[in-house]
Amino acid sequence: MKMYQKLMLGCALIAPTLVAAGSAQAQVSGVAIADPETVILTAKALDAANTSIATTYKAQLDQANARQQALQTELNTLYAPLDLNKDKKLDDAEIAAAEAAKNPALAKIEAAQKSAQTDLARLRGPAILAQAYAIEQISQKYSAAMNAVVTAKKISLLLSANTVQFSTPAVDVTDDIKAELDRTNPSVPITPPAGWQPSQQTQQLLQQYLQQQQYAAAIQARRAAAAAPAPTGKAPQGR
User: What are the Cα distances from residue 115, in Å, to 67, 103, 109, 151?
Assistant: First the structure.
């Protein structure tokens, strides 16, 4: 049975008012919701896998970070002549002016970015493939954890949270399924067999996970910048 088959069964036939029923009625009727993607992408096994991946592929990841920094340094140099107002960033007007002038720096920027993308894909590729393999292993364990919760809570209909417009917190068993998955599968292998390729579903989950990681990193960087102490240099004293 496919991963989401039980979640989607009968979904289109359930009236929103039934899903929005109070917790007591939901328990009597046996209706609940869960978010499979949240369970999988926040699983303890994925955290453990990431720790192992960071160690196993440390050399390649360090090289990728160095290559990323080298690219940024190169781009800063190429951007400088195009930064007309010297605010250390390019706005639409400055890019348009460079394009109108057919500034050769634009072609150099594009070439630098393409070259770096190729290098970064090569360096990060093994780690990302290992991450995809871990996610797929966790996905395959989801059904067993879900079935355990369904049986324990006597749920007769489990809907995907993404298809429900409203529900009370009492009918959400996402945390219960995650707890069961974490208990029974605290870790998964990270080394894919030769020639292994992730399924389309795994690719989608991986993309979502990487986007979440990038967003979290951006938020953290923004907070760090905001928390940085302001310059304390004293102004010159007049006589």
Answer: 10, 20, 10, 53
How would you class 203 by CB atoms within 10 Å of its CB: exposed for 0-12, middle for 13-18, buried for 19 or more?
middle
DSSP helix/strand/coil, 33: strand
* Confidence (pTM): 0.76
pLDDT tens-digit map of 87-123? 878 889 999 999 999 999 999 999 999 999 999 999 9
Contact assessment for residue 123 and residue 63, using Cβ atoms and an 8 Å cutoff: yes
From the list 164, 162, 159, 156, the residue with the least C-alpha distance to 16 is: 164
Tell me the pairing of strands 31-34 and 157-160.
Answer: parallel
Q: Is 172 exposed, middle or buried (0-12, 13-18, 19+ CB in 10 A)?
A: middle
